[in-house]
Amino acid sequence: METFTNRNGLKLAYKFSIKNPEDKRIYIVLQSVFFDMDFLIYSFFSQNLEVNTFRFDFPGNGKSDGEFTYAGHISEAGDIDDVVKFLVSRGYIVEGIIGHSKSASVSIIYSALYGEVKTIIAIAPVFFKGLIPDYMAQRDAIINSNGEVLRYAFGCTRKMIQEILKIDMKYYCQRARNNIYILQGYDDENIEYSDSLEFVKELGGRCKGHFGLNCDHMLTGVLDDVVTIISQIIRDS
Fold this sequence. Notes:
- InterPro entries: AB_hydrolase_fold (IPR029058).
- There is one protein chain.
- This protein is an alpha/beta fold.
- 39% of the residues lie in helices and 20% in strands.
- Helix 4 (131-146) crosses helix 5.
- 40% of the residues are buried.
């Protein structure tokens, strides 16, 4: 297993998928919360996109050092920056980032804070409005009322909820510095389709494309279609 060390001294596991050794352009493929870089969606992208790709596990995920967190969006944007610098040090030109779910939102935060790549493809990013924040806020209120700090079945704590509820995606969208493409499933059970429309609105001219997909959050049945869309974005970028 190959690793590099991030700014916090944690060793993060990674894998290259090199389609053309003479081409130093590369795309970063990011895994979402609960998954690692070898999960079906992300390995499928690396295998089927006709570009060089780089996958890695965020801290606390897969084979990387660190503790898992359901939150950590700002620190993970820093991890992306560390990856970009690591790849540049190896002679690569980082053309873009492909993120899904949590990592799609983190990619947009990265764009606002660092913004050193040309293209970001954000698949099912969450705008932190509607169902998910309401649910989290309700759970947080229950914890506050009975004085307990609970860990939920999906590994999220009260502290993580409070961190997530402070994320202002409007702020980051309005400060994004890359060309951003949004892909969202109409039948996404985790993130409402209307979230994607919020991104389009707040990104303004930075949003270069918005694609609705006939699928759920895990892109069931449309992975080939998503690869086709991403391939076209890469060709047009």
